[in-house]
Here is the input.
Amino acid sequence: MKTLKYLSILSLLLLSLFITACKEPNPEDEWKNKIPDYIEEVEAYTSIAYEYDEFELSMIKIKVYYTDGSSREIPLTEDMLSEKDLNKLESTGNPRIEVFYDACDPIKFVLKLIDSSLLDKDLNKNKEYGAVIKAIRKDNKIEFIVEPNGNACAFQFQYTFNNSIMQVKNAAKGSLSGVYSIELKDNAICAMIVLDEAITTETVLFTVEFEGNFRTSQLTIDQTFNNICYTKIDNYQTEIIEKVLYHASIK
Amino acid sequence: MKKNLLILLLAICSFVGIFLFNSNVIASANPLELIIASPGEIAASEMSFSWRSTKSTSSFYYSDNLTSNVNTWNKIDLNGVLDNTTFKDEAIGNYRFELDLENLKPGTKYAYQITSGSSTSSKCYFETAYETGDFSFLWVSDNHAYAGTSDRQTKFQTLYDKAKAQLGNIPLVISTGDDVAYGGTYNCWQTMLNGTNGLNFFKETAYISTPGNHSCYEYNSSTIPSTESDRFFDAVINTPDNGTDEGSTSYWFIYNSVLFISLDAIVANSKGATYIPMQKQFFIDTVEANEGKYQYIIVYQHYPFMNALTGSRFGPYGTNYGKWYELFDEYGVDLALSGDHHCYYRSNSLYNDKVVDEGGTMYIGAPQIGGRHREIAETQDADYYAKRVTSADLNGNSGATYFTVTNKGITGTLIDTNGNVHDTYTVKAKRAVNWDSNKDLIASSINTAYLEDKTYLCFNNEYSKYIDTLEVYNGTIKLFTFKPYETKKSSFELSNLPKNKAYNLTFKLTFADHTTKEFDKVVHTFGYIGEIYNLQANINSSKMNISWNADLQNNIVANFKIYKNKTLLNTVSSSTRSYEINLSEVDSSTSYTLEAITSTGEVVYKETVVYSLIGDASFDGKLDKDDINAIINGIKVNKQYSENELLYLDLNKNNIVDLGDAFTINAYINKKISSMISDTFLVTIIDINGTVLLQETVKYNENSSFTSNSYNFNVSLKNIKKDTTAVAVSK
Here is the structure.
């Protein structure tokens, strides 16, 4: 009887120790007891340009310094900003926001919110190019589009990309009739296209599916390739278009 | 009584004395004077004349037969315009005559003579320009002819003679103004052109000038009229009436390969800054309207472009560089000549207001002739000036520049009255010769024709002026040398060629700009063999079929020989019209030659073709998407095409086979076009003398018949694939 009692007490002691040992300490608890002294902007986060429609407030972090000399970075939360400043983050621009944290003096800094898709527009605003070829992401595809200034009828060009970041497959020609040769290489997309008829409006020549990260794929025109676009002149003869812009979207 | 008579006599003598004294001021108009010949707008065929007479009518005689009797010359009767208001010292009043001759023969020396009343001028001469080729001219300025001195005229004539000693002939003299001391003083013009002190060279050359301030001065004054300031100048010199800057005497003319543009600097200066835009527009319109007709542009005016005295290029009155250099850069002016400062300068080649090695505009200011010289005072923009010659260094304080123009450049030489050379330079040509593209056409127009047992070489006689020499070789032996340029002929008998022989002759053309072209041609003396045409090579199943058409005449052709590249394949009868080879024995670069042979083995016809199906890049005898893909695949592997392949695949003529060619071929496959060759060709029918009977443009591969009732011929040409000249020979 006595032995059973001692065993029960021992078990309870062991169990309590176990329970105590299994419970992970809450890191926040460590900081909860500290007293914030002041906060600072972290330029590593504020110097980056963020796509406005992909931006989350938590992407921005500030540094908190405590009275005991310690410090840490914490993400912004909505309660740190006024409603007015929160509204500024809904559109592109360089909003200046004021951040409040605990009893610290507030700090102000500027964010960069951009819309990279605007870089794909008005590429030939001044009509200095005879044609624009642009590679634009659309969902999981890349559209290769021609924007003629005048007319365009045949194309040969090659884009390269970083195949450790993005891979391509399944090229599909656009709606225009003609002869297409779309070659998907390890790190390049090579197109040679002869249309049945010249075009004068912006048109998708072909699409290519991709996997991976388009944004960081470094998709760009291959300057070492003989990139040429042709325009139709009288009687279906052709001339080389002298000035062509080859563009790749970054978003 | 005696006393009264004596007094009367004294009075009469005094009156006469006063009259004689004043005769230095009031000139007498001579019966026939101030005769000047000046180049017309197109100096190869136009010449303008001006003279004055006390009679209201005049006759102008001219001829290119220099030794013939003047009674046989062309004659033009004219009525003069009474002018007794322009010159204050012309008390009698005389008649101004102006004549513009057109349709003259290029490169031809003419004699002319003028009569008016009982007066007859000396026999004078002028030469029309050539339409191309080398020529020389003399540039002078600031002669300031003045009745009070003969020194200026003497020195002017001396400079002309010194230049002529170097050049041999001076068909053109250009002045940058101030021909006379006082434009409104008639006897200044008389001094320049008439009498023992007048300039003799006016009788043998064409002279043209531009208004200078002195030639616009009122009678015995230094005042330029505010309106009609050029009226004195215009009353003596007949310049082309093509200046569009109104109220001025700006003009242009083309002489050989040079577009000369004269700017009226006097009117521009008097009318102020608002006038310059109109004058610039005249310049622009002139250059653009004449594009392709010149190799060089020379602009000249009286007031200086740069300052000869201070060596500065920008500045106040007298320096026009700042107003014009940008426009001259844009349009590639070669030389900008001026006068007025009586001191010589020559700039470096300038472009974008910077010194360049070549390719810019050279600005040159002329010295004067005879006294009133000025000296270099300072140099402000040293880098911009290549040469400056102070007038004291010129013998006679006088200078002139003669130019030699070739297709390579313009060489200028400044001389003084001793003939000493003070400056020499060459401005390299910026542009190709203005008719460069015609050389193939000219060469291809050379034909043989047979008439009355004789064999002739003949070509379009409009081309004779472009061909300096036509040499004909049989191997290395020169058989004939013809001189179309010199003789003005375009038909030459191949005399002494044995009958019934055939030759593969080499023709060497030396053009008027000294470039050359060689080509081979079969020439025979058998007479008319008939027509052989439409030679083709086409794939038919697994064979290459070489075919041709022939309408043979006179039983001269006995056989045909067919070659693959240069290898003889077979000899077939004269009735054969095709031959086949296995496709495996040829490739896309193979050429095929057909020869027509006489019974003695002479070659009387030879033609070579390549594969005839244009656009068949896959070389399978048909046109379809395979050909587009073949071109695409060729691009991928950077395929190098042979010259023969380019002939039927390079449709956009850029010496490669590319997607542009593929587009055209694709359009043909899709029936959007009926022919991939959009070129048109010039068909010219000439007679045996080279006279053009008919000229038409036809499409590629068309058959064309040409009929002319006026010339009574009917010529049928088939499958035209190049510019073609055919000779219509009367039977």
Observations:
- Chain A touches chain B at residues 153-156, 178-179, 181, 183, 190, 192-197, 228, 230, 232, 234-240 (CB under 8 Å).
